Amino acid sequence: MRVIKSYVSAMDKINKILMWLIAILLGVMFLSLLAQVLTRYVVKASLHWTEEAARFAIIWTVFLGVAVATRQKALIAVEVVIQYVPLKVKKTLMIITLIFTGMFMLYLTYLGVNLSMNSANQGSTALGIPMWVPYASVPVGSFLTFLNTLVILFELLFKLEKESELI
Description:
Helix content: over 70%
Main location: membrane
Transmembrane segments: 20-41, 53-71, 92-112, 132-158
Strand content: under 5%
Number of strands: 0
Organism: Sporosarcina highlanderae
Order of helices and strands: HHHHHHH
Number of domains: 1
Number of helices: 7
Distance between the termini: 22 Å
Membrane topology: Multi-pass membrane protein
Low-confidence stretches: none
Subcellular location: Cell inner membrane
Radius of gyration: 20 Å
């Protein structure tokens, strides 16, 4: 039980770091788009790299944000059935859902690693960075989402939260 609580605590710390990283990426996105607008309409010359930098920042923000939102149980879910079933059935359905979600995230991680490896020799058009950098957001975000799915599953199985907070 101590190992599981340590794991949950470690993932919560990782998620705090991810929140800071997401904030930085949103700042990069904002500043690059602001620079694009200012140079285009004030200086009358366009920066060629800003749109690509903003796009890559958005991609990383989405995949890291899904991981954090998973832990916070802030993702959209269809809960019509879950609201009207007894608690025991509710927990069983949630466990099944979490297992399938975890399996899908591991599969997406596998596909993302392959995508990143296959694009290792490609460069981005404007920034000139290797394309594995933006593509790596898929396996990194998917694996972090898997790890956060495990946290929720452990909380559900080992009653680390109150029953009312689980759902």
